[in-house]
Amino acid sequence: MSLKIEELKKKIIYRSSYRGNKEMDIILKSFISEYIDKLRDDELKILYDFLEIDDDTLYKFKNGLETNLELPTNRITQLFKNFKIN
């Protein structure tokens, strides 16, 4: 694995842990811990962009509520939607 991908993973971990909303910090940190080492390089880039979405939209999406933003259908959004914290 390249250094560039390792740096991307570190950024993803950081961005998932310090969001400002404690509940989303917990959900995203658990989600990232579960999947970060299982994703392909291209999926990591999608995940990085996914973390740009605000907490309110992600929370609503996760819980099947209507959002003001249409999230793309891809493996990352599907994994997140179906993710259950153990």
Rg of Cα set = 12 Å
Estimated structural class: mainly alpha
Overall spatial form: globular
Poorly predicted runs are: none
What separation lies between the terminal Cα atoms?
29 Å
The residue fraction in helices comes out at 55-70%
H/E series = HHHHH
User: What is the number of helices?
Assistant: 5
Tell me the total number of β-strands. 0
Instruction: Kindly estimate the percentage of residues that lie in beta strands according to DSSP.
Output: under 5%
Round the mean pLDDT to the nearest integer and report it.
93
How would you describe this structure in keywords?
mainly alpha, 64% helix, globular
Give the gist of this structure.
This protein is mostly helical and 86 residues long. It has helices at 3-17, 22-35, 41-50, 55-62, 75-82.
